[in-house]
Every structure is written in C-alpha cells, then in structure tokens.
Amino acid sequence: MKISVLFIGLLFFSQLAIGMVKKNYPDTIFDLSGSSFEKEYIVDVDPGQDRFGFSLKGKITKGNLKVDVLDPDGNRRCGFGLKTTDENGKQLDAQAKGVGEDFYDDPIPGKWKIRITSSKAKGYLKMSIKN
Q1: Structural domain boundaries enclosing 80
Q2: pTM for this one?
Q3: For residue 97, what are the β-bridge partners?
Q4: pLDDT of 13 strictly over 70
Q5: CA-to-CA distance for 25 and 128, rounded, in angstroms?
Q6: 108 CB contacts (<8 Å, ≥6 apart)?
Q7: How far apart are CA 28 and CA 106, in angstroms?
C-alpha cells in the first residue's frame, strides 16, 4: 500500500515537473458597471506545453471596451474592441458584442498577457483559459 501511494506521488510530481499536469484557470465573468479601468492578467505557458487557448466574449450597452491578448514577445494575437460612444461621449449604438477565440499547438512558452481596458463600459466580459 505504501509503495503504491509513493509510486502515484512520484508519477504525479514527475508529470508536474515536465508540464503534463494542466493548470486550472476558472472561467471569469466581469460585470462591467460603467467604471473606467485597465487590468492585465498573466497566464503562464510552460516550455514543452502542447496546447494553449482562450475564449473571450463581451457585450456592452454603454461606453467602450478593449481586450488584447499578447504573447510573451509582446505581439497581439487576438482581441476585440467594442464601442458604443464616440470620443465626445455621444451614443453611437445601443449595444456592441465581440468574440475572440484562439488555440495554439506548441505555444510560445512564457507569460501571456490578457489586457482589458474599460472606458465607462457597462455590460459583461467572459474570459475562459484552456491551458
């Protein structure tokens, strides 16, 4: 029994060391209440990781929202911009929707960034990381 537990523990930690155990990033839903902010989220992609992906979905009824996904080299890989008002605050549209989704085989290892910029946006943004 002790040998079985020891073997399972060694197997788990050896897979963790070589990146086979997936990190768990729970889905996140942002309730955008009309405030302005800029937030950046970091997702670590390990060397040798075979797959990485994300899904972003947003809908706003007021303000502007921008979402960018940047790889470790700083290149924009995905994202969208939603706009319901112009630079003077004049309402352009009743609502705006956006979707960004991408998956990579053999992704670039390092720190990927998801940058969210709200300018008085009212609505929601859902972010799912598949790591």
Answers
A1: 24-130
A2: 0.75
A3: 59
A4: no
A5: 8
A6: 45, 71, 72, 73
A7: 25
